[in-house]
């Protein structure tokens, strides 16, 4: 019986140690989303969206007509070292370019004027998470934002 217990413990410890560990690139700054291009990380444009009330909607505006963070990938992959940010609370929006700015409108009744796109969040190791668009994205400007704040991580799909 004692021998069976030792063998079982050794097998359990061996199985736990055999878990695959993330060996890809690690973000140099915490709480910032990085576009993953093979083994290269491209920092997303970090900013704050300002809120304006228009008719019955809230419009969130990001300065500038385009983001310097660009990707040719229709299904971009992001990596984040999440220390204070909650990856599961991130939302993806397509931005409209108007008057030299990027914006998204949301109705106060919960009806979204702009459609929220879905993200898949996967824990890779420790605080490192992979975030992916669940469906292919059209060319254009996008922002990922926590559901409870105005901070944005902007990028362009071209």
What does this structure look like?
The chain has 158 residues and is mainly beta. Helix content is 10%, strand content 47%. The chain has one helix spanning 2-17, and strands at 34-37, 40-43, 45-48, 50-54, 57-63, 70-71, 77-81, 90-98, 101-106, 116-117, 119-125, 128-133, 140-146, 151-157. The strands form two sheets. Strands 3, 4, 5, 6, 8, 9, 10, 13 and 14 form a nine-stranded mixed β-sheet that branches. A five-stranded antiparallel β-sheet has the order 2-1-7-12-11, with no helix packed on it. The longest helix is centred in the N-terminal third of the chain and has 16 residues, at 2-17. Residues 7-19 have low confidence and may be disordered.
Write the layout of secondary structure elements.
Elements: H1 2-17, E1 34-37, E2 40-43, E3 45-48, E4 50-54, E5 57-63, E6 70-71, E7 77-81, E8 90-98, E9 101-106, E10 116-117, E11 119-125, E12 128-133, E13 140-146, E14 151-157
Parallel strand pairs: 6-14
Antiparallel strand pairs: 1-2, 1-7, 3-14, 4-5, 5-9, 7-12, 8-9, 8-10, 8-13, 11-12, 13-14
**Poorly predicted runs of 5 or more residues:** 7-19
How many strands appear in the DSSP assignment? 14
Mean pLDDT: 87
Per the principal axes of the C-alpha atoms, what is the gross shape? Answer: globular
Largest sheet: 9 strands, mixed
**What is the string of helix and strand elements?**
HEEEEEEEEEEEEEE
Report the C-alpha radius of gyration, rounded: 20 Å
User: What structural class do helix, strand and pairing data support?
Assistant: mainly beta
């Amino acid at each position: 019986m004692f021998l069976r217990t030792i063998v079982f413990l050794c097998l359990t410890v061996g199985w736990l140690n055999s878990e695959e560990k993330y060996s890809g690139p690690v973000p140099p700054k915490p709480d910032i989303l990085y576009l993953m291009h093979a083994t290269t990380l491209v920092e997303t444009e970090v900013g704050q969206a300002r809120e304006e009330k228009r008719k019955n909607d809230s419009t969130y505006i990001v300065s500038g007509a385009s983001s310097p963070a660009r990707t040719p990938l229709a299904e971009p992959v992001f990596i984040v070292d999440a220390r204070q940010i909650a990856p599961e609370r991130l939302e993806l929006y397509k931005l409209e370019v108007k008057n030299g700015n990027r914006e998204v409108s949301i109705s106060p009744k919960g009806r979204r004027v702009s459609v929220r796109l879905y993200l898949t969040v996967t824990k890779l190791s420790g605080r490192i998470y992979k975030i992916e668009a669940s469906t292919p994205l059209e060319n254009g400007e996008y922002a990922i934002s926590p559901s409870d704040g105005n901070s944005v991580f902007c990028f362009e799909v071209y």
